[in-house]
Design goal:
- The structure is a single chain.
- The chain is an all-alpha fold and about 300 residues long.
- It has one domain.
- About 75% of the residues lie in helices and about 0% in strands.
- The protein is built from 12 helices and no strands.
- Helix 4 runs antiparallel to helix 8.
- The longest helix is centred in the last third of the chain and has 38 residues.
- The chain is globular, with a radius of gyration of 19 Å.
- It starts with a helix and ends with a helix.
Amino acid sequence: MSELAKVPIRLGYFYVMLAAVFWAASGSAAKFLFNGGMSPAQLVQIRTTIAAILLAIWIGSRSPSDLIVLRRDIWKIVLLGIVIAATQFTYYFAISKIQVAAAILLQYQAPVFVAIYALVFMRERLTGTILVSLTGAILGCYLLVGGYKLDLLHMNRAGVIGGLASALCFAWYSVGSAAAMRRYRSWTVVFYSLLTAAVIWNMLIPPFEAFSQPRGLAQWWWVLFISVFGTVLAFGLYTRGIQMIRPTHASITATLEPITAGLFAFLFLKESMEPLQLMGAVVVVAAVLLLQLKRDKTQQA
């Protein structure tokens, strides 16, 4: 904790924001791969496998001691890996069944689950600032992705359930990784979580089957992009951010992902945003800024 105390708290928000950028870009890339014939399960298998291998090489060459985990903690790390596997699959499953906007909206109900957990189990006091920020983030996401145009009740039911399941799993990872980092470094937690997820998906479907799916350089580029930026770096940055600003603040800050996704769509797909969507983006940014400004005042006091 003394090491963390020397780091500016704003850096934690920056890490989570950057993770949100990578996840947003990965969502669009995943849709491209699905349209090319790759299944959600295959994408999860290939991204977690590549990510685990890269992290093993990086941590093993840089700080081998970070690969050591006490026997009594193995089940906790394994559980986080199961949660990551479930988070990625349920999210991609939702994308394959319903609109990307709807899947994002459903997954970003995660801050609600994190706040409920903090209130009920951690006995944390949900201050007015957190409640306002939480409400603003959820409302902003709703407007931003055009939730007012989505008829969730008449969408593919399996896709809606998948989106809500991804929210629950994402919340679980946010809380569980924070607990694991009381004993281990953030990269240790991320590595073993992704390694467990990779093992699970190589058991559920034929080992390394997904590696035969990408066709051509374009598909391989997006597979590697998702594996490196959307998995290794995104989970690494988000997990480190959790350690610095707590799960509730991190999960709310991560709702910046839809803003980034909308920006990518505007820049590369020439999609325009309606006034209500722009208003939603402003509300989400305001919610995150409110959290950070309040935290800064608390730190200075």
